Fold this protein.
Amino acid sequence: MKKISLSAFTLLLLFNLSSCKNEDVFSINDSSSNIPVIANAANAFSFTVAANRYNYSETHNLQMSADTLSVAITISGEVNGNGNILIKDGTGAAIYQKDLGSSMISAEVLKLVTIPKTLNLNFSNFTGKIIIAVAGK
């Protein structure tokens, strides 16, 4: 049941994000720019921000216990600047990494040998809307 619900969640997220029209595009000048919304729970992590020349470098301790990881990333708007995501296991070895410096919709499912322990996000002078969802199953 978990596999079905996680896959359904990922598909719904991607469908919802890909159905946006031009009039749905957010304004970078919103008062909420550069205030990230972060959720970190057992086998789930999410990060969302409307970024305007955003600088951020943070390592988050994950609460994962699963050997399969789903990573969904959407970056939209007028994207400028640099960013990356790096997920590591308990030994510090990289499990997943991706550059986040351009518009994208990405969904990946990874079968892991080790359990993810940390997630590092870095953004330098970044502008755009960022949605990242990571789930273990």
Observations:
- The domain at 2-22+39-136 is CATH 2.60.120.380 (Jelly Rolls).
